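Notes, Module 5: Reading structure tokens.

Key idea: the token line is not a picture. It is a compressed description, and you learn to read it the same way you learned to read a sequence, by spotting repeated patterns. We will look at two proteins. The first is printed below with its tokens.
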Amino acid sequence: MKKETKDLNLYYMDNGQAKNDEKTKKQNKRKIAKKREKRIKQNIKNREKNEFDIENETVIEMTNKNKLKKDEEQRKKITKKEKKRMKKIKRIKFILKIFLLLCVITGIIVFAFTSPIFNIKDIKVINNSQITSENIISLSGIKTGENLFKFSSIKAQNGIKENPYIESVKVNRKFPNTIEIDVKERTATYSVDFLGKYAYINNQGYILEISEDSKNMTKILGITTPEDQIAAGNRLNEEDLEKLEDVLKMTAVMTENNLNDKVTSIDIKDKNEYIIYLEEEQKTVHIGDSSNLNNKILYILAILEAEKGKKGDIYVNGDLNNKFQPYFRESVTV
């Protein structure tokens, strides 16, 4: 009896399980069907959406362009602002750099003007022969012990140039405490009679000094420069400067022919009738103007050799290109 009951229970259990499985299958089928239906509807919607986009492509494209344009404008605005900001930053940095540089320069200047390291200990003068170093230093106004940077080099140069012998000058600072004064001097080459004294002049007609000694320099006679203008530091007038150029030409040719050392004086009163005096040879040379000088000097040398020891005048003041023959006229002693 118990065995039958057990079999009966197993039957009912199996039969119930089968029913449950069938029910589950039906539920799964319904779920699958719903999912398929949902997927179909979604596909239909996607197709409809795609069809709408194709039909409205122009509208979408225009919308995108407007959006891009707005984005671009926005970017430009941002870029402009950024550029302005960057310029402002650069300007500030530049100002800061200038400020720092000025601070550094100011510090260096203050140090240079106050430090005893730059106090002058030595003043040197170079290339001077006519004027003493002491005289040049005195004219410069520079003193030892003062700061290397506190004096004006232009003022010092102008002070030195007050001496007529000084043609040019450079004042150089040699760190840390030395001054070098480099001068170029004028050289006296001729003398001019002046109220019983002699005015020394150089090749440029500058009056360098008034002295009682001629120093055996060639004398220039017959100048037209007024006496009140004959002073150290002045220059001969224009007329005399033009004649001095002719004198320099004659001197150059005579120097080439070893004759210049015998010249005592040159009279320049008449530019068409220059006269050269040779005291040692006891002769006066009438050289005329400054033309054809080489040939004239050769004739003078020949006559000096031929008439050696005789006192008289040599005439080479004619036109040698027009059959003029130079000659010597001996002085008649009474």
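Here is the second protein, with the sequence above and the tokens below, as before.
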Amino acid sequence: MKSLATFVKEKRKEANLSQEEFAARAGVALTVVRKIEQYKGNLNLEKVNQVLKMFGHELAPVEIKKITPDL
């Protein structure tokens, strides 16, 4: 599975867009795109989804279920 940083960077390059152009089209600050592509911490989920929307994707919390062995 690709990381978020790799996915966004690859998709942006496939679209032949610079980080600046991509940020403008996604409606986010250039720093948001840079943080995502450099996998910086403290990313705002709303801003990440604004970027991913350009590719028809979205991130959402997923519940992780514990697997308990039968005793």
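Summary for the second protein:
- The chain is about 50% helix and 0% strand.
- The mean pLDDT is 89.
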